[in-house]
Amino acid sequence: MSRWQLARRAERLNPSTIREILKITERPGIVSLAGGLPSADTFPVAALQEATARVLREQPREALQYAASEGHGPLRDWVAAELATQGLRCDAAQVLITTGSQQGLDLVGKVLIDPGSTVAVESPTYLGALQAFAPYEPEFIALEGDDEGPLPEALASARGARFVYLLPNFQNPTGRCVGAARRLALVARAAALGLPIVEDNPYGDLWFDTPPPPPLAASAGVGDDGGAIYLGSFSKVLAPGLRLGYVAAPKAIYPKLLQAKQAADLHTPGFNQRIVFEVIKDGFLRDHVPTIRARYKVQRDAMAAALDKHMPPGCRWQLPVGGMFFWLTLPAHIDATTLLPAAVEAGMAYVPGSAFFPQGGHANTLRLSFVTASPAQIGQAVAALGRVLAAA
Amino acid sequence: MSRWQLARRAERLNPSTIREILKITERPGIVSLAGGLPSADTFPVAALQEATARVLREQPREALQYAASEGHGPLRDWVAAELATQGLRCDAAQVLITTGSQQGLDLVGKVLIDPGSTVAVESPTYLGALQAFAPYEPEFIALEGDDEGPLPEALASARGARFVYLLPNFQNPTGRCVGAARRLALVARAAALGLPIVEDNPYGDLWFDTPPPPPLAASAGVGDDGGAIYLGSFSKVLAPGLRLGYVAAPKAIYPKLLQAKQAADLHTPGFNQRIVFEVIKDGFLRDHVPTIRARYKVQRDAMAAALDKHMPPGCRWQLPVGGMFFWLTLPAHIDATTLLPAAVEAGMAYVPGSAFFPQGGHANTLRLSFVTASPAQIGQAVAALGRVLAAA
Q: Which residues of chain B are within 8 Å of residue A66 when distances are taken between CB atoms?
């Protein structure tokens, strides 16, 4: 009889609550506002068909063979040039292509977190980051914040942390966007404390009226002796099923991230990298991304109107100026997890907010996605939520 | 000034020697026998073109959206059915699709290895496995072996190890294939010791005259209370640039591997999974894989003949009955690493064997791939190697 013995870090791996919720809400007849998925209507299928055919016609041997762990050279060049337009100066040699930006989070955790070391995160923050970091056994420090983002003075509580993990643009789950002044204050405070920044930016392109301020990494730097690692993704502007993201990292860290990447999966599929490069190389995203923004803005407006109309007194939310999510704070006595079955019964679903908090709690919060349901469905689902909340 | 501090495990991440060698040997005019790459001539480009077009025409929304961490259902079913033909009984629910089988190794390490715990490996063994396991800080136990594989009695030295990692089919780097009786003896001894087996089988389909004996996992079991985890790959029978592999694991381990997979990259590209399923679902590999075997056998024969003709006395090798590699043991006074520049100067390249040994040493060994060079190139490169060795 074989004795399988799990590593201690495996205790920190847990089934995703959200996964379970998504399974429930795949039932027909449910309007799910629970998913963190982009709208499939935004996938540029024709461009991908053309690019895929071209790659398999013109460079099949290269696209289908083993490839460099760093990623496809021209795609790394493209990323470095794109980051430069955001004020983030780095050499293509500091760009690592990853299997979705989720893998970037895993590599960052693997290379920087020791058991018992501390990592500072927003509270709430992206659940997938907590899941990526957790098996490396950090202690999480929850940063205090307000509607504009984490408080610069809260960084003092993170002194000595391996890094502070921040999503300044239309954060998942709250949708909040950190303003320019707050960004500079956060970077200055982090620098004064010697605190490295890991900046995650999957949603930055999805702004509705004006682009967000420059990334934190633009002032903290990802160059030779930079203070930030920056993570980006093609999942929200092209398609997540391609699993393509990237990391830009200072030279103090890059070689170790690269070695961890090589150990993790040798390299991200060259096939996918070459297809995406073919799609975007001549400026495709300049025309495509505005169509996503326009679509999501209509849906955001539909949800804003529905919330105004249907939410009972005592519920609070902020209007997101980009991204995919509304974040609701319910009256303190309402537990969003307990309430979920009633909501599903009423024909809609959301994600309870508790899982996004590194220390749990905050049972009276929930996340709504406005990008996968139509405006009419959004109206219907939010009305149903309003009835369920009023009854509670 | 930010203080980046590396995790202790990052010390165990190292630049790959082989990577460096491959860079050197990409120079024009060099016939490289160093790579571990399959021949690009075997990539089924037409079938992939057709399947890719079909996926993007018929199921673009599903293929391009986020997907289940377990993998694409029909592909998991296919894998379970394929394993059954090898005597390996498991439910599709125990199959996890991975981003290449390299990722399977990383997930196994993450879930099973604690710092200071022991892992038993063949000596030499696959370098990528050493690299995947190393950051989880195990102590490696090198199993004694002979030309037929690791010795069953050597497993006693691995008592208490988290697992023993074995590649019974045409191993990388030695090319050796473990016989049926040896396999049963290894499984019996491992079971008696309570020692879990991690079996890696990237090359099993590449046999030349007769198929290898059933996998170790067929007798150890990957079922409910099985004693083995089994790793497979599409890299050698379709194309590595798609990064598609799989793990079959007992129910005691599967949920943790799945959670680790989700934390690592959410899921393997659904696009790639659906394309590969479209290619293989109607039996494509039954016709395709024999063409790879026939091609590689011709190349194997060319290398065998060239070695017989050109190697100076004192060099030893075994005829591989499948796979991609010859393994050479040189006279004890010759250091293959020191000799490499002279070989490159003479127009050929190989991989020195030392890196494949968990405890290093064995400087007088080297690996030759016979699958990426033509028979004529193989003859020429081996002749050059012979001259360099004779001069040493």
A: 36-37, 235, 240-241
Q: Would you call A191 and B2 a contact, using CB atoms and an 8 Å cutoff?
A: yes
Count of domains in chain A?
2
Ranges of residues in chain B with a pLDDT under 50 are none
Residue A110 is nearest to which of B9, B253, B256, comparing CB atoms?
B9
Domain match, B266 and B305 both:
no
Kindly give the residue spans of alpha helices, DSSP state H, lying in chain A.
17-24, 45-58, 60-64, 73-85, 100-112, 127-133, 180-193, 216-220, 254-265, 270-280, 284-310, 336-345, 375-391
- Identify the CA nearest to A2 among candidates B225, B59, B61: B225
| Confidence bin at A27 (pLDDT 50/70/90) | confident
* Residue A57 belongs to some domain of the structure: no
Question: Residue B348: which CATH number?
Answer: 3.90.1150.10
- Does residue A226 have a pLDDT over 70? yes
- In the structure, what pLDDT confidence band is assigned to residue A29 with cuts at 50, 70 and 90? confident
DSSP string, B86-141: TT----GGGEEEESHHHHHHHHHHHHHPPTT-EEEEESS--HHHHHHHGGG-PEEE
Among B99, B136, B242, the strongest candidate for a mutation testing the A interface, having the largest count of A CBs within 10 A, is B99
**Domain of residue B295, residue span:** 14-36+286-391
Torsion of CA A18, A114, A2, B357, to 10 degrees: 130
Q: B161, B177, B152, B172: which is closest to B36 by C-alpha? A: B172
pLDDT value, residue B151: 98
Residues A263 and A334 both lie in one domain:
no
Supply the pTM of this predicted model: 0.97
Query: How many beta-carbon pairs under 8 angstroms link A with B?
Result: 273
In a domain, B9, yes or no: no
Mutate to test the interface with A, among B42, B43, B55, B65 (most CBs of A within 10 A): B65
Q: Is B103 in Cβ contact with A265 (below 8 Å)? A: yes
Beta bridge partners, B356, equal none
Task: Encode pLDDT of A228-257 as tens digits.
Answer: 999 999 999 999 999 999 999 999 899 999
What's the pLDDT at A14? 83
Examine the pLDDT at A26 and tell me if it is beyond 80: no
Return the residue of A nearest to B52 by Cα: A52
Which CATH number goes with the domain that contains A227? 3.40.640.10
In chain B, which residue's Cα lies nearest the Cα of A8? Answer: B114
